[in-house]
Amino acid sequence: MSADYKSTVFLPKTSFPMKAGLPQKEPELLARWEAMDLYTRLRHQSRDRERFVLHDGPPYANAHLHNGHALNKILKDVINRFQQMSGKDANYVPGWDCHGLPIEWKIEEEYRKKGQNKDQVDIVDFRRECRAFAEHWIDIQREEFKRLGVLGDWKDPYITMSFAAESRILREMGRFLMDGSLYRGARPVLWSVAEKTALADAEVEYHDLTSTTIWIRFPVIAPSQPALEGASVVIWTTTPWTMPGNRAVAYGEDMDYVLFRVDEVAEGSLAVPGERLVVGRKLLEDVLKQAGITAHTEEASFRGRDLAGTVARHPWRGRGYDFDVPLLAGSFVTDDSGTGFVHIAPGHGEDDYVLGRANGLPVPDTVDGSGNYVDSVPLFAGRNVFKVAPEILEAMREVGALLAHGTLVHSYPHSWRSKAPLIFRNTPQWFISMETLGLRDKALEAIDATRWVPERSKNRIRSMVEARPDWCISRQRMWGVPLAIFLHKETLEPLRDQGVIDRIAEAFEKEGGDAWFTGDPKRFLGPEHDPDLYEPVRDIIEVWFDSGSTHAFVLEQRDDLKWPADLYLEGSDQHRGWFHTSLLEAVGTRGRAPYDAVLTHGFLLDEKGEKFSKSKGNAESPQKAVDSVGADVLRLWVVSSDYMNDIRYGPEILKQATESYRRLRNTLRFLLGALDGFTAEERIANPDALPELERWVLHRLSELDETVRRSGAALDFHEAFQELQSFCTLDLSAFYLDIRKDVLYCDGVDSARRRACRTVMDRVFHHLVSWLAPFVCFTAEEAWLARHPETDGSIHMETFPEVPEGWRNEALAGRWEAIRRVRRVVTGALERARADRMIGSSLQARVDLYLPQTLADGLQGLDLADLFIVSGVALHEGAAAPGEAFRLEDVEGVAVVVEVAPGEKCERCWKVLPDVGTNGYDGLCGRCSDVIASGSYPASAPADGG
């Protein structure tokens, strides 16, 4: 091609670079949004719109972000941006959880390094250090979240340690105190010996632990059946340390039991020939094996209910355990493992406690906060429960109670912070009753009234609420909202006085929770109560009550939000965490859930399917990906994932997201380049005046608009992303734009075809960049500014463009589906011809197309050479194709023969045509000659060749 002819071609021209350079470009766009105060402008712009509120579940302010945070916050941002561009006012107020054990543990570590005991530090000084630690990490995390493109009210977030929040949390606790739901009681709770405090379920993780297992005889002293006279029931447990707390044995009412006599035993067996034992029938063989019993005789069998009324004695009777041990029916007893009998220690297990309470059993206090037996425990006072197993075994052996012992590796609760194993320990704690005022039933009703996404998550939280015990809200720590209650010294009843609660809350609002530790009790009790009669409780409120109360001091207290929220969104672990405690707190104080809908995303997995976890130390920082490929690629990974299930992440997956991003960017770049110089005057306003191919593109935009809006309503952007990517890759790049490149590059400036193409491309760009804006917020902004360089606005201030009803044309879509099937056969034939080296470019080809009359009718009126990107097409309607013709099995009746196109190559458009050089210009075809003659071509070559 001559230089003059090259300068007459409309090559794409754009400032939007092929190489994204996101790690450098994104901070520039963040600075622009900061300078224009985008969040505030959005609030002013949308102040009269319907409000949408996604209430932020507070992350914990104690470390750098990991990719689990990125997944969560990006998804929230995508939803908020989508709602904003859907025409709503999507305020987003981020927040932080600041109280609790993780921060306190960090501060304690610093004291331990210095050889100091934190209990000797002034509590207010200690709390001040905790507060400073949280403030430090809030500042760091704020910037890390912003770098991900998360738009929100970062200037005025909520934090649970603000004085206003601490005051409101206390008032929320006071509501339960005043209505009688909050009570002080002693019951077993999960207790961390390392941290010396009770833990919530959400603070517990499970790891394998090797435990000593024991099979113990409980001699029957009052049989319900004559055959039981002189026999022993056998229990099995993996926690020998709980034996001093034993007060009963449980059986399954509908299980089968067998009484057998020991006849022969193996060497070393602890079983005694002639003794008579009772075990579950299904577990008999295992018990015989474990005990080394080689021969036995069955003497009787029972149903579990036949054992009702039987009484045994504790194996250590005469050694300080001189009490009867009743046999009780327990619904939790199974015959999956063990012996079919479960030893019951009411102070060391939830099932044990409930069964004991129902049967009037005492709840002994056997273990202190350090995991040592208290002084009143016979035989083992002062011993540590995690080291006492050998002594328990020996004590059982001495009295002839030990039938067998072994070890078992099993899943066991551990503290997620210290990694230490936990115990169930009976302690005085403060509980919110699930039954007193019907909290459980109300919560279940609220669950049924809430939209759960995915729907299966409803069953998960429902089962948790159905089975959960009373809510323990007290912690024996220092950093948190004080459980500011006065306890009567004689009656041990809490003081229920709203005036006292109000005075404490007012002090907290001005001075924070420290006021509880520095203030004179008289200040809060007022003249109505004698301070000598009351003792202030020094526990703190558990951190899950803090976060469960955020709806009260965020949604209700801020004018820019509303109660209830439209949406809560967190990981699936929050069914027993934030979703759960927010539900109980709101239902207990306001009668309904604080949310209309709840979206749950899955856990983060590595490429092998293993979970990432802070506790494992393998939770990678999103900053690594941001620094290498940019936040938009990370955002694209989120929306391209099926995030309602567990999500995989790793180098290869990030590489795939990068490739997806590259394809989207290239599409935007081509559109921008091809639209260079496009003005409103060039636009064809009437869609009916457009060629069929352009009207088909408008139809596809109509379909995509429906998909995108449906996905947004379903909170499932995975489908929308897949459709948009397919549109860019298959419909645009591989089809429409591929076909129209010749028109865009080589038609004259006044060409109706070119004007129509650019009109549609303008529409495509506007829709596409708008739809992509919530997903790849930086790239959409960059593309928008490249298209509108003079604007002081933002793509994020736009709403999704409306799609005229007339764009939808199902009949046209059906016709073009058939056309594309035919084109696939032609494309396949051209690829084979290229492989056979018959042709290089497809423009060097002429094709003979054989197809049925019905398909041929659908091609009428089309420029088939343009459609197939060849230089000539001969259509053979209903004729038999040669045997060597190319065919595809899934496109019946279509065959193609490829030949070298006759003629010369046009030096401007590269088509091979017979008329090249016959129209007044050497080396040009007729179309290109007309363009040159009319002067309707660019004046000079573009700076960027695209």
UniProtKB/TrEMBL annotation:
It is an enzyme of class 6 (ligase). Keywords: Aminoacyl-tRNA synthetase, ATP-binding, Cytoplasm, Ligase, Metal-binding, Nucleotide-binding, Protein biosynthesis, Zinc. It is found in: Cytoplasm. Residues 903-931 form the Zinc finger FPG/IleRS-type domain. GO terms for cellular component: cytosol. L-isoleucyl-5'-AMP binds at residue 570. InterPro entries: aa-tRNA-synth_Ia, Anticodon_Ile_BEm, Ile-tRNA-ligase, Ile-tRNA-ligase_type1, Ile-tRNA_ligase, M/V/L/I-tRNA-synth_anticd-bd, Rossmann-like_a/b/a_fold, tRNAsynth_Ia_anticodon-bd. Its cofactor is Zn(2+). HAMAP family: Ile_tRNA_synth_type1. This is Isoleucine--tRNA ligase. The gene is ileS.
